[in-house]
Write a structure and sequence with these properties.
Blueprint (H helix, E strand, L loop, with lengths): L2 E5 L2 E4 L4 E8 L7 E7 L6 E6 L6 E3 L7 E6 L4 E6 L8 E8 L15 E2 L3 E6 L1
Parallel strand pairs: 2-11
Antiparallel strand pairs: 1-3, 3-8, 4-5, 4-9, 5-6, 7-8, 9-10, 9-11
Length: 126
Amino acid sequence: QVQLVESGGGLVQAGGSLRLSCAASGRTLSNYAMGWFRRAPGKEREFVARISRNGNSTYYADSVKGRLTISRDNAKNTVYLQMNSLKPEDTAVYYCAADSLRTGQSIRLVRTYDYWGQGTQVTVSS
């Protein structure tokens, strides 16, 4: 079992920045590829970004490319999401998730990931 806890959310003005953190416990994080998803009000959970187990490969949703950056520090068992140039449409609950690579399915699917955090709210005001 892996327990994931997100932090760093909050209220920010459009154009501002936030850094989300996802701290893992229970298992070594380096065994998992990690992803960030978000759920906006009235919408389904959607893929935001993903990072490989060693951090060498990253993937992003088109809507966040160039503004959000995923990174990880396996020594600290933590994954980050640096969010710059935030827009009101980025308002959502953000979740981190761990993928054991068990299913081999698309990295953009919710069901690909084995463990989830409880989420942290990000609100961007216009």
